[in-house]
Design a protein that fits this description.
Elements lengths: L35 E7 L5 H9 L1 H6 L3 E7 L2 H9 L5 E4 L1 H10 L6 E9 L1 E5 L14 E4 L5 H12 L14 E4 L5 H7 L4 E5 L2 H7 L3 E5 L10 E7 L1 H6 L1 H20 L1 H16 L5 H9 L1 E3 L5 H13 L15 H9 L30
Parallel strand pairs: 1-2, 1-3, 6-7, 6-8
Antiparallel strand pairs: 3-10, 4-10, 4-11, 5-8, 5-9
Helix pairs in contact: 1-9, 1-10, 3-4, 5-12, 7-11, 9-10, 9-13
Keywords: Cell inner membrane, Cell membrane, Membrane, Signal, Transport
Family: Belongs to the bacterial solute-binding protein SsuA/TauA family.
Main location: membrane
């Protein structure tokens, strides 16, 4: 069965253990077909949709009396495991853990139902030690964890530049050191690593400590866009409660529109959530830079997911997977159509049964 050796999502900024003590906005109004929906996300600015949507109450308002039960994860695999064990119903995830969760479960663990973020990842280096790509030889570069989205990006980049690295051990012409994001800034400052390919806000934290961006990952993609964060759902929950999933998607789409129109307010909302989750807000300079490098988007950028899976296979972290059916964009496209917007494309990776309208929820048994 095709799978990542260890598919790990980026750890949250200043990450703690997974927690469920986030105080959600009060549920008000009529309930949908479930009493509640359990939603996972990370304490990263690349999860701005989730952070702002929860802080402002936009998502909860779309759900009415169906309560949001948020759960914050440090990494994608724990979120996928939570989906597998019916501990959460939906989650914002990076592409690598989504692909791995799909492959390992034979397509039973999840469906991608929306995009959330593009960009927001860079290779930041110590400019005194590394001035160009040729200076990477013999250096130590950190990534969040083995097989995570940024780990795959770095390994693929190094291979393209002629460097040989054992993907499993991280040893070779360049040493790839898998390091938690909360540790990376201090390791960089102390000189134990020479750089890191990391998501936001860690990349901006390194820049604030004197680092220089050697590779903005946006430059490696056509039009500078690639999937960094998706919204996924348990297929069981999607089948039983499509009305709830649709409400969360409306909240996600409305949150992204609000972020686009009110960037300063969105930064404050995201930072307020980060302070609640990790105990401290980001400095303004770091937060501003992290926002500039990240684009919130409803488009899942499905073609780039296929490419990222190909990159993982090329560096030896993934057998070539069959991703057909990983997307179900029916409800997202219904929400977009209602908003007068064009549909999102699944790049041919939607299941054949996902071409028609979502089934109504009236006949579904509520989860009580």
């Amino acid at each position: 069965m095709p799978l990542l050796i260890t598919a790990l999502g980026a750890c949250g900024y200043g990450s703690r253990a997974a927690q469920t003590d986030v105080t959600p906005v009060e549920a008000k109004g009529a309930k949908l077909s479930a009493d509640d929906v359990r939603i996972g996300y990370f304490a990263n600015t690349t999860h701005a949709t989730a952070l702002a949507g929860m802080e402002t109450g936009i998502v909860q308002r779309e759900l009415g009396g169906t309560a949001v039960k948020p759960q914050v994860f440090n990494a994608g695999p724990s979120a996928v495991e939570a989906l597998n064990s019916d501990a959460v119903d939906m989650a914002w995830l990076g592409p690598s853990p989504a692909v791995n969760g799909w492959a390992r479960s034979g397509g039973k663990a999840l469906r991608i139902v929306s995009g959330s973020a593009s960009g927001g990842a860079s290779l930041v280096v110590n400019p005194k030690r590394i001035k160009n790509v040729g200076d990477l030889k013999g250096r130590t570069i950190a990534t969040p964890q083995l097989g995570n989205t940024q780990d795959v990006a770095l390994l693929d980049y190094l291979a393209g530049k002629g460097y040989r690295v054992d993907a499993r051990t991280g040893e070779g012409d360049v040493t790839v050191a898998r390091t938690e994001n909360k540790v990376t800034p201090a390791a960089f400052e102390q000189g134990s690593i020479d750089g890191a390919w990391v998501p936001e806000p860690t990349a901006s934290q390194l820049v604030a400590r004197g680092g220089r961006v050697l590779v903005d990952e946006r430059t490696q993609w056509k039009d500078g866009r690639f999937v960094n964060t998706n919204l996924v759902v348990s297929p069981t929950f999607l089948k039983a409660h499509p009305d709830v999933v649709e409400a969360v998607l409306r909240g996600s789409v409305k949150t992204n529109a609000w972020i686009g129109k009110h960037p300063d307010e969105a930064k404050r909302a995201v930072n307020a959530q980060l302070e609640k989750l990790v105990g401290k807000p980001l400095p303004t300079k770091v937060l501003d830079r992290a926002f500039r490098s990240t684009e919130v988007t409803d488009d899942p950028l499905a073609a780039t997911l296929r490419t990222q899976a190909a990159h993982a296979a090329r560096v030896g972290l993934l057998d070539k997977p069959d991703l057909r059916g990983i997307y179900d964009l029916r409800l997202l496209n219904k929400v977009l159509q209602d908003a007068g917007r064009p549909p999102a494309d699944d790049a041919g990776l939607g299941a054949s049964w996902a071409t028609g309208p979502a089934r109504p929820h009236e006949s579904r048994a509520p989860r009580r």
